[in-house]
Design a protein that fits this description.
Elements lengths: L11 E5 L14 H20 L4 E4 L5 H12 L7 E6 L10 H13 L2 E4 L8 H12 L2 E4 L8 H11 L3 E4 L3 H6 L3
Helix pairs in contact: 1-2, 2-3, 4-5
């Protein structure tokens, strides 16, 4: 599974959020909304840093996970003690993505301090194993969670709430209301 030293959950935060197509708005056609999302994400990470969080775990999925990882990496310039951990459900999870997303994945993974892998190849349940690990190792979850949705983010956030983790949910309903139908 993973080959890293044990983490201190009190100082570890993970990310969970939507893939681009589930954001509730077209992030490429609505750059203003996307900039708000990125600003809110950066602010949430800075709040965590102010609370002495130094380790961040990303699930490495397209969208929110990779954007959050990029923010941590950018903040590492001014906060050099920050660590970034990649939690991969299986190696090669990104092989069928577009070239831009594959390049983003590769860039983030190369900059990570550790990588945890949960299956040798895709297996049913490997994403849930990754999500459970991220919640287990963290005491805080920075998320983009619309409570009416289903999927991996809903699973991760419900698990985090059951285990008493702090959720810092940056989802804003105005994104959904303003999205073209």
């Amino acid at each position: 599974m993973s080959n890293h030293p044990p983490f201190d959950p009190a100082h570890t935060c993970c990310f969970s959020g939507s893939r681009p197509e589930k954001l509730g708005f077209d992030w490429q056609r609505n750059p203003d909304f996307f900039e708000i999302l990125r600003r809110d994400l950066r602010d949430a990470i800075l709040r965590a840093i102010e609370l002495d969080y130094t380790r961040f775990i990303t699930g490495m999925s397209r969208g929110f996970d990779l954007w959050a990882a990029q923010e941590v990496l950018a903040l590492r310039r001014s906060h050099p003690t920050l660590e970034l951990i990649a939690a991969l459900p299986f190696p090669g999870m990104h092989t069928h993505w577009t070239p831009d997303w594959r390049a983003c994945f590769d860039s983030v993974q190369q900059a990570c301090d550790y990588t945890a892998i949960f299956a040798d190849a895709y297996l049913p349940g490997c994403y849930h194993a990754r999500d459970s690990y991220m919640v287990q190792e963290s005491s805080r979850v920075i998320c983009w969670y619309n409570h009416g949705t289903t999927g991996g983010t809903a699973y991760t956030c419900r698990l985090a709430m059951r285990r008493g983790r702090t959720l810092d949910n940056i989802y804003q309903p105005f994104y959904q209301a303003a999205a073209p139908h």
